[in-house]
Design goal:
The chain is α+β, with helices and mostly antiparallel strands and about 160 residues long. It is built from four helices and six strands.
Length: about 160
Amino acid sequence: RREGGGAPGRAGTARFLAQHNTWGFVATRAARGKIQGMPYGNCLLLSDGPINNSTGIPFFYVTPKDNTVTDLLKNPMASLTLPETDGNFCRRNVIDPEDPRCARLTLTGQMVTVPPEEIEFAKQAMFSRHPVLRKWPRSYEWFFMKMNIEHIWLQSW
């Protein structure tokens, strides 16, 4: 059990990481230029729901100007890694987040555009945790994506 939250066990740890991480590392397969077909990664802000309604489904507010999004629009398969950086366990014990004792959750699946019937929820999810997003330039053509999770890998030693 992680200190400060989550149900006991591996599922509780995974849910804790999904709920409390505000960003994650998204890996794709590059779809452009000289790196086409190679692995490519980027950190993106995320939310699994409004603070009082965690779903475990990661939502993102993205722009097609981002290379990661360009990749996802051509090949939606991705992985998302959520490190235990926002919790207290590693910080309190002065352990680097990359130390194997700090939990790490990797989700793989398809990144899809949020359907119209879920847009309001996606807005609440992202804007409640990241209010500054409302002020980002509209000219960047922001839209919402979410990950349809197919596989879960939890490193929790």
